[in-house]
Automatic annotation (TrEMBL):
Residues 202-279 form the Transcription factor NusA first KH domain. InterPro entries: KH_dom-like_a/b (IPR015946), KH_NusA_2nd (IPR058582), KH_sf_prok-type (IPR009019), NA-bd_OB-fold (IPR012340), NusA_N_sf (IPR036555), TF_NusA (IPR010213), TF_NusA_bacterial (IPR030842), TF_NusA_KH_1st (IPR025249). This is Transcription termination/antitermination protein NusA. Coiled coil: none annotated. Keywords: Cytoplasm, RNA-binding, Transcription, Transcription antitermination, Transcription regulation, Transcription termination. The lineage of its organism: Bacteria, Pseudomonadati, Bacteroidota, Flavobacteriia, Flavobacteriales. One of its GO terms (cellular component) is cytosol. The gene is nusA.
Length: 410
């Protein structure tokens, strides 16, 4: 096989891998030099001439003519009699350039050369993919579901690049079928060996922030700033926004008339409940807004320990805590403060944990999950509501109510 024919046989890589011909030639030269080093021990005295336009390649070995019997390095020296077989008028001390044909490298070397070339092209391809997706980290990307595994969904983009979305990066309510188009953010890109591993996430707060940029023109244009986003994926999120332009209502612009603007985002996130609140540097006001929809009576802040005691009317406590404690947890994450809820008139009440000798801890925990952590807060609800909200058995709820009532009847 001639050099030219070898290059032409690799044209498939140029088409399939979208690699330009100049890059292909550079890789080809590198591969040839490695082959020459293996066969001759060094490639320093070889010239490799590549013509990308013609797709041609020539290899020339340069050696010095020495007297017969004085050749010490056959790679760099040639005897006078051998040199004169090439050109009769060669003399000692002159340089001889001789073209090396592929056949001179041997069949095994040619096969190894081809294998090495394939490897180098794949490596080049993977490096380009890594660079491409590294620049996309934190951006929204769309890909198609290719394969669904127990712990991850494997996606392919339009160019056939593999993207992995692990189970913990999915929204719990997500349900995918093969062929579905999925949106998420490129969360991380790493090179493992020579292969890039691309991770997509739909559970990241950044995904919600980027959806705001994509769906709300004022956010995209920079008229509204998204200051912070916190999420419990698929359940609830809080987004703090503000604007330098006093004429713009940031919350109103993000939500839209009757929720028209935010509706598409909510639907994308599996009906995740999104609270949009006005950001402020006034910490008391910010914590009050973060606990929405609860109405706060007063706040006592401990800046040193990053704690806030919030006083609420009894009927507001469950709103502040929220289903499963989601509201108060997100309010704490949004403000950076540990929030303790106190009820007005709590001095006449008794905390549930005081009944731990009569009520099992796991039952108390079930009530605390829905924001009921004192005796009176439980007794404010009728039995049917408590059974529905806690998923506890009727007998268990009845037993708890009887114990609590006895406390206040004594």
């Amino acid at each position: 096989m001639e050099n030219l024919a070898l290059i032409d046989s690799f044209s498939e890589f140029k088409d399939d891998k979208l690699i330009d011909r100049v890059t292909l030639m550079a890789i080809l030269e590198d591969v040839f030099r490695n082959a020459l080093k293996k066969k001759y021990g060094s490639d320093d005295n070889f010239d490799i001439i590549i013509n990308p336009d013609k797709g041609d390649l020539e290899i020339w070995r340069n050696r010095v003519v020495v007297a017969d019997g004085e050749v010490e390095d056959e790679n760099e020296e040639i005897s006078l009699s051998e040199a004169q077989k090439i050109e009769p008028d060669f003399e000692i001390g002159e340089d001889v350039s001789e073209e090396v044909k592929l056949i001179d490298l041997g069949r095994r070397s040619i096969l190894a050369l081809r294998q090495n070339l394939i490897s180098k092209i794949h490596e080049h391809d993977n490096t380009n993919i890594y660079k491409q997706f590294k620049e996309l980290e934190g951006d929204i990307y769309t890909a198609e579901v290719h394969h669904i595994r127990h712990r991850a969904v494997i996606l392919l983009d339009d160019e056939g690049n593999e993207i992995i979305m692990p189970k913990d990066r999915q929204i719990p309510s997500d349900f995918f079928r093969k062929g579905d188009n999925v949106r998420g953010i490129i969360e991380s890109v790493e090179l493992k060996g020579n292969k890039p591993t691309i991770i997509m996430s739909r559970a990241s707060p950044i995904f919600l922030e980027k959806l705001f940029e994509q769906e709300i023109p004022e956010v995209f244009d920079g008229l509204i700033n998204v200051q912070k986003v916190v999420r419990i994926p698929g359940e609830k999120a809080k987004v703090a926004v503000d604007s330098y332009d006093d004429r713009i209502d940031p919350v109103g612009a993000c939500v839209g008339m009757k929720g028209s603007r935010i509706h598409g985002i909510v639907r994308e996130l599996g009906n995740e409940n999104i609270d949009v609140i006005n950001y402020t540097n006034n910490l008391n006001l910010f914590i009050t807004r973060a606990l929405s929809p609860a109405k706060v009576t007063s706040i006592k802040i401990d800046e040193e320990n990053k704690r806030a005691e919030v006083l609420l009317k009894p009927e507001e406590v469950s709103k502040a805590i929220g289903r499963g404690g989601h509201n108060i947890r997100l309010a704490g994450q949004l403000t950076g403060y540990e929030i303790d809820v106190l009820r007005e008139g709590a001095e006449e009440d008794v905390e549930l944990r005081e009944f731990s000798d009569e009520i099992e801890d796991w039952i108390i925990a079930e009530f605390q999950k829905i924001g009921l952590d004192t005796a009176k807060s439980v007794l404010e609800y009728d039995m049917a509501d408590l059974i529905k909200r806690t998923d506890l058995e009727e007998e268990t709820v009845k037993h708890v109510i009887n114990i609590l009532k006895e406390e206040f009847e004594e």
